[in-house]
Write a structure and sequence with these properties.
The chain has a domain of about 70 residues. It contains seven helices and no strands. It has about 210 residues and is mainly alpha-helical. It is elongated, with a radius of gyration of 32 Å.
Amino acid sequence: MDEPSHYAVHRLLDMSNLRWEMAYFWNNLYIEHNNQGGHPCAGGSWKGASDYMTETDRASVRRLLWRWGRVREFCAAKEKELEFYADKLESSRDIGGRVQDGQPRGSGISDPTARAALSMDRIIDSYADLVEGIRAAIYRELDFKAAMDELIDGLPHEQRRIIELRYLDGHQWTFIGMKMVMDERTAQRIDERAIEALKPGISVMMSTN
C-alpha cells in the first residue's frame, strides 16, 4: 500500500480538526439553549440570543409578579394611612383657622399669635404633601396592576392559573401541584415558561414608565 502523500495527510488533519470544531460548536449550542424551547429536531425551536433569559432577568420578573400580587394589600394599608393624615390635615386646618381668627389686626410676625399661625401653616402644608404623596402612590400601584393584569390575561390558561396561585394567592408549590393535578416540578416548569412569555411585555411596560 502506498504511503499517503503530503497533501493527503494535511487533508486528513483538516477534516479531523473540523469534526472536533463542529462537535464543540453543537455541544455549546445545546448547553446554551437546553431550557430555551427544546431541540428543533424534536419539534421545538431555539430562541435567538436577544430572547435568552438570565437568572437576573427571571428574578426581576418574579419581583414584579410578587409586587403585582400584593397591590391590594399595599393599597389597603395606604388607604388607612391616607385616612389618618387626611383627618390630621382637616384638624390642622380647623385649628389654623381659629388661630388666624384670633390674631390681632396689624400685628407683626413677632406677635405670638402670628408665629403660631405661621407654624400651623407649615404643619398644614406638611400634611397636605403627605396626603398627596399617598394618593399618588395608590394611583401608581393601581396603574401598575392594570398593566400587569393585561399581560397576565394574555397567557395560556394553565400558565395564568399557576401565576395567580403562586404570586397572587401566595401558595407553596406542593399545594399548587395538587390544585393543578400535576407534580411540583411540572408546575415550576410552567411557571418558568410563563415568566419567559411575560418578559417582553414587562420590558416594554417598564421602559415607558
